[in-house]
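Hypothesis: this fold can be encoded by more than one sequence.
Test: take the structure tokens below, design a sequence, compare later.
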């Protein structure tokens, strides 16, 4: 399970124990033929990524070429559009904030690092909001736009190798990198070493499996089978995907202080009664429907030797359950932040 004993739920500021946020479901109006669930937001975002040649082509999708195979998910236009959609989902989740760490307003962020920048959309927004900061976005794929703020630079690099940045940072940010790291303790250690005293780190990640407060997500559901089997595939490929609940202890082990965990919830669809949670569910469903094939292909075909045809059958069942408003499930979204001591 993903719940951390000393995490603070999203509805609280801080706390020593998790108080499960009870999301009230809306009255059941489920219609198996309701096509609006997965299509209402279908064309809401546009890609800002650019493509280059020499990428790996596999099962109809495109993957990064630099350090081929290290990142398990596609980098094609379809996935880039999805990443930008996910950025909006996170923006809604955090009430319009690009980060949630309690960095004092008078603390200057001279240098900021965005780890796994993807399309660069977070780094671009941060650079626009903080023209006084020098922002560096790092990724394995050069899919970022060329028209960017003057205080932003993108670099193609492998963050799992030894870091060679000339200057240290005041803020390091990373999100949705689960399954992309082989050595999380090393990542937090290198982050600590590359921060100035008093600098901050914030990591945002989904923590699987999905949870349900009322038992409507059954143990034998297609969703649970997909997650359980997917974890096996990621493990076979030498990666970790069930990791977000370990970030706090790993940050502390690296030397960080003031480490805090806040858990948000992404409903699987529009099942909640609350208007805000319903909106998160609608965007979350579109995000999942857009990403389901991309995040599964390499894990199941490379890691477990499945055929694409076999995977397609499973994903069809998963999509059906994701759309079902009678299933009151949600994904825990972990935000973990900490600070390097001002005196080290």
């Amino acid at each position: 399970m993903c719940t951390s004993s000393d995490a603070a739920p999203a509805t609280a500021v801080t706390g020593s124990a998790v108080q499960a946020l009870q999301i009230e479901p809306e009255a059941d109006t489920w219609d198996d033929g309701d096509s609006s669930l997965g299509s209402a937001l279908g064309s809401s975002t546009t890609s800002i990524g650019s493509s280059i040649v020499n990428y790996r082509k596999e099962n109809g999708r495109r993957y990064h070429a630099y350090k081929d195979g290290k990142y398990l998910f596609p980098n094609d236009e379809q996935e880039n559009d999805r990443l930008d959609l996910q950025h909006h989902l996170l923006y809604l989740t955090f009430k319009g904030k690009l980060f949630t760490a309690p960095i004092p307003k008078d603390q200057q962020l001279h240098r900021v690092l965005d780890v796994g920048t993807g399309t660069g959309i977070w780094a671009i927004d941060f650079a626009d909001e903080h023209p006084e900061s020098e922002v560096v976005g790092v990724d394995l794929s050069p899919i970022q736009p060329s028209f960017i703020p003057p205080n932003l630079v993108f670099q193609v690099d492998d963050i799992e190798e030894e870091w060679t940045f000339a200057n240290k940072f005041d803020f390091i940010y990373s999100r949705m990198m689960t399954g992309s790291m082989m050595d999380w303790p090393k990542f937090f250690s290198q982050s600590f070493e590359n921060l100035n005293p008093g600098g901050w780190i914030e990591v945002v990640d989904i923590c699987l499996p999905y949870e349900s407060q009322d038992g409507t997500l059954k143990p034998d559901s297609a969703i649970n089978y997909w997650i359980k089997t997917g974890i096996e595939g990621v493990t076979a490929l030498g990666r970790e995907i069930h990791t977000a609940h370990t970030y706090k202890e790993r940050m502390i082990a690296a030397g960080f202080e003031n480490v805090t965990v806040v858990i948000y919830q992404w409903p699987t669809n529009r099942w909640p009664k609350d208007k805000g949670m319903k909106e998160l569910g609608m965007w979350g469903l579109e995000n999942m429907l857009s990403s389901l094939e991309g995040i599964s292909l390499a894990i199941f075909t490379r890691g477990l030797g499945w055929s694409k045809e076999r995977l397609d059958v499973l994903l069809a069942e998963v999509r059906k359950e994701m759309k079902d408003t009678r299933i009151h499930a949600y994904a825990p979204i972990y935000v973990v932040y900490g600070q390097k001591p001002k005196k080290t």
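The domain at 8-339 is CATH 3.40.50.150 (Rossmann fold). The chain has eight helices and eleven strands.
Hypothesis status: open.
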